[in-house]
Amino acid sequence: MTKSEVIKEFFKKSVLPVAVAALLYCIFKSAYTKDGVTDYVWLFILCGLPFGIPRMFAWIVPGGSLGTALPLFLLNFIIGGVIGGFVLVWRLLVAAWYIPLTIYRLITARGTSYIPE
User: Fold this and answer.
1) pTM of the complete model
2) Domain for residue 117, yes or no?
3) Considering only Cβ atoms within 10 Å of each terminal Cβ, which end of the chain, N or C, has fewer?
4) What is the mean pLDDT of each run of 10 residues along the chain (117 residues)?
5) Residue 69: inside a domain
6) What is the domain range of residue 32?
């Protein structure tokens, strides 16, 4: 890999997920902080919600009347937030792993062009 490819991948795999997590933390801070106390369960669910949106309608299909559809719809959001919370934690772990990996790749980079062996 070239140094520019290493740096691009570092920003994509490490800097971007950390920046998105920090942005979500700032956006939802008022929702999970009550009287100066942080509710970590709501932090986990709300910050994971954007990562779980594609997965939140996977299992439960709302049906019937509005009285049963609305609670199931809200349960989908909670399930999506929990799944997305795990996805967010995984992406942050990958971001932490890419720091030493990028340092290693920069040390062993071949220069500006790829030369096959």
Assistant:
1) 0.75
2) no
3) C
4) 85 92 90 88 88 70 68 81 90 93 84 54
5) yes
6) 3-112
Those residues with Cβ within 8 angstroms of residue 30's Cβ, 6 or more apart along the chain or in another chain = none
d(CA 62, CA 68): 7
Assigned domain for 86 exists: yes
80 assigned to some structural domain: yes
> What's the pLDDT score for residue 51?
85
What is residue 69's predicted lDDT score, i.e. its pLDDT? 73
- Concatenating the DSSP letter of every residue in 31-99 gives HHEETTEE-HHHHHHHHHHHHHGGGTTSS----SSHHHHHHHHHHHHHHHHHHHHHHHHHHHHHHHHHH
User: With b meaning 16 or more CB within 10 Å and e meaning fewer, what string describes 54-83?
Assistant: eebeeeeeeeeeeeeeeeeeeebbebbbbb
- Please name the residues in contact with 65: beta carbons below 8 A apart, sequence gap of 6 or more: none
Question: What are 94's two structure tokens?
Answer: 């990958």
Number of domains in the chain: 1
